[in-house]
Amino acid sequence: MRKNSIKNTRINGEVQKVLAEIIRGGIKDPRIHPLTSVIDVEVAPDLKTCKAWISVLGDDEAVKDTLAGLNSAEGYIRRQLAKTINLRNTPEIRFIMDQSIAYGVSMSKKIDDVIQDMDHTKEGQE
To answer: What is the pLDDT of residue 111?
Structure first.
């Protein structure tokens, strides 16, 4: 199976959906922040490994705690994944923090600040 084949794309989407459901409702670990999202999933063509990009809306401490909680619950998550999705192999999951949403929010705020400063400068010149 090629990396970008239709089958691989479908498996990635299904694993992402089920992983989000498991994280949202199946894990009782208090370290995992309630505003945790599965941004993307990339399952290897041999179905042995999986990279899951996770985003947490919170401070650095919440991000660190969530990553620790997810890593400790990886065995449980794999079992739930195996029960839900019928794959030849249930992949080992490696959680990767994705800071793109937080980065986008901070850049948007910086752009708004610059625009606001420009408006104040124009008003002062008039």
So the answer is: 92
Q: For residue 10, is it within any domain?
A: yes
Interval 70-119: pLDDT, tens: 999 999 999 999 998 888 888 999 999 887 777 777 888 899 988 888 87
CATH code of residue 86: 3.30.300.20
Q: If we measure between CA atoms, which residue out of 79, 68, 57, 59 comes closest to residue 32?
A: 68
Global pTM reads 0.75
124 domain-assigned: no
In the chain, the number of structural domains is 1
Neighbour tally for 18: CB within 10 Å? 19
Q: Does residue 116 sit within a domain?
A: no
Biggest CA–CA distance in the chain, Å, is 71
Tokens in use for 85?
């999705």
* Residues of the domain holding 88: 6-99
**Average pLDDT for 18-34:** 87
